[in-house]
Design goal:
By secondary structure, this protein is of the alpha/beta class. It contains 16 helices and 14 strands. 44% of the residues lie in helices and 20% in strands. The mean pLDDT is 93.
Length: 403
């Protein structure tokens, strides 16, 4: 597969009046944290909430009149679906999107609202993909691939031009990898304009196929597991994308855990005042949790913001726990008058806020003269948590659980 810089420039001209030229913003807090001048590229504010709109619109706009008349089909669990749906509507093209039956209700509704005919088929993405290909064959639709397509890659590559025009001497760009379309387009554009810029790709450690290819590790035991970064959860990495682009333009590929992504989502909410979905925060998770060579200036791609509202509170709580901002603990004390008061006073002396407290006198393992007390505390740091634990132990409490 071949994409040239000229293809990306052509895509940019085609897209200029329909996309948001998303903000490229310096972050003082991230710069202090990472010891590099950090810039965020906020593709979570792109139309449909992710970078996917760029590639989808470029693909559909390059169809022949006959192909447009027949319509397009795509398979997706989320962002690609919405990008194709809106792009097709703007071009006056009929679109059919096949989504897994367990796809987010909000994402399926948004895809319909953009004008697509949504078909729910299969329990996993792979089954939705197979059904979409079946519809392509039966109805003459054009299949819009989420990443393995030259026009899609060129559309995503316009992000690279926007970045390098603002920051021509940039040292590093950190980019999430799912199928590889985003990193391929950005890397090609960026390295054409500045061959010295380093490109770091980020995958979820629950779907690390491309990382294995990059490191020349065997793929036999690679399994896709549930992850909050579902937008980059690709079961089988594309050898074509690796051979054509990633092996030539990418300098490093790392993986991050769900916990690290959750921590990054919370950081972006609190410090950058932006909402990123799991895959959208993966690049920041890598910057925060891996010892990367970022250089003097780096750009972190925030690729999408379509987070599932049903899990936002869980992600925030998890991220707060990991950052030492929320602390859950259980202690055992003698069941005597005044002990709870002594514990709460010790917590108050350490300037922590008690959010929840629960007594348990009957659990298995407790003696008749013991009680278990569970606390949820608002704290300021991991160091603060350690001070609280020491203060409680000095009252005679035995800590049996903490997180």
């Amino acid at each position: 597969m071949k994409v040239t810089f000229a293809d990306i420039e052509k895509a940019r001209e085609l897209l200029k009046d329909v996309i948001n030229n998303t903000e490229l913003s310096h972050s003082t807090s991230a710069s202090k944290l990472l010891n590099s001048e950090v810039y965020f590229k906020f593709e979570n504010t792109q139309r449909t909430g992710s970078f996917k709109f760029r590639g989808a619109f470029n693909k559909i706009s390059n169809l022949t009149p006959e192909e447009k008349a027949r319509g397009v089909v795509a398979s997706s669990a989320g962002n690609h679906a919405q990008g194709v749906a809106l792009s097709a509507s703007l071009a006056g093209v009929k679109s059919t999107i096949v989504m897994p039956e367990n796809a987010s209700i909000s994402k399926a509704s948004a895809t319909r609202a953009y004008g697509a005919n949504v078909v729910l088929k299969g329990e996993i993405y792979d089954e939705a993909f197979e059904y979409a290909k079946k519809l392509e064959s039966e109805n003459g639709y054009t299949f819009v691939h989420p990443y393995q397509d030259p026009h899609v890659i060129a559309g995503q590559g316009t992000i690279g031009i926007e970045i390098m025009e603002r920051l021509p001497n940039l040292d590093t760009i950190i980019i999430p990898i799912g199928g590889g379309g985003l990193i391929s387009g950005i890397a090609l554009a960026a390295k054409t304009l500045n061959p010295k810029v380093r490109i770091i790709g980020v995958q979820s450690d629950r779907s690390p196929g491309m990382a294995h290819l990059f490191k020349k590790e065997p793929l036999t035991n690679v399994k896709r597991s549930p992850t909050i970064a579902d937008g980059i959860a690709i079961k089988n990495p594309s050898q074509i994308m690796y051979d054509s682009f990633i092996s030539n333009y990418v300098d490093e590929v790392v993986t991050v855990s769900d916990d690290e992504i959750a921590e990054a989502i919370v950081f972006l909410m609190e410090r950058a005042k932006t909402v990123a979905e799991g895959s959208g925060a993966a690049a920041m998770a890598a910057a925060m949790s891996r010892n990367l060579n970022l250089g003097k200036q780096c750009c972190v791609i925030i690729s999408g913001g379509n987070i599932d509202l049903n899990i936002v509170s869980k992600i925030i709580d998890r991220g707060q726990i990991l950052r030492g901002r929320l602390y859950e603990m259980s202690v055992i004390v003698d069941d005597l008058p005044g002990n709870l008061s002594r514990l709460t006073q010790a917590i108050a002396n350490e300037k922590a806020n008690i959010l929840e407290v629960r007594h348990d006198r009957v659990s298995k393992g407790l003696s008749l003269r013991e009680t278990r007390i569970d606390f949820v505390l608002e704290t300021s740091s991991i160091e603060h948590v350690e001070k609280i634990k020491r203060a409680l132990e000095q009252t005679g409490a035995k800590i049996i659980h903490s997180s």
